[in-house]
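We give this protein:

***
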Amino acid sequence: MRVVVQRVSKAQVRVEGEVVGMIETGLLVLVGFASKDGHDQLRWMAEKLWGLRIFPDAEGKMNLSATDIGGQMLVVSQFTLYGDVNRGRRPSFVGAAAPEAASPLFEEFTGLCREYGPVAEGNFGAMMEVELINNGPVTLILER
């Protein structure tokens, strides 16, 4: 699984003009799944994301997690994280899990994330518009 996580002051996702998920201070998580992904990767990533010490402490050092600050998480499915452009100019998505496999992974992942704190989410497979206000900016790429 591949994740791009951004520390945000605010983020929201819209489908057909309607806001379907919104958070204040916390993490915007774009997540893509591979066909080999399973429960172990999902559990590891949920724990890792909520425990990442990327929020500033009183001295301005990245020393606090989303859990520490009472943050929220917005999770958006993003199969294009598996886009391979090593050959040619058009991305290949053969590394991404098929929608039939990725949808239950997305549901399980968001459920695991909810064990640690409040989670909003986009609509799996929908054309989504994501709007965010970076806090930093701080952007990390994680893979498991």
Summary: The mean pLDDT is 97. Helices lie at 39-51, 66-69, 99-114. The beta strands are 2-15, 18-23, 26-32, 55-56, 62-64, 72-77, 119-121, 128-143.
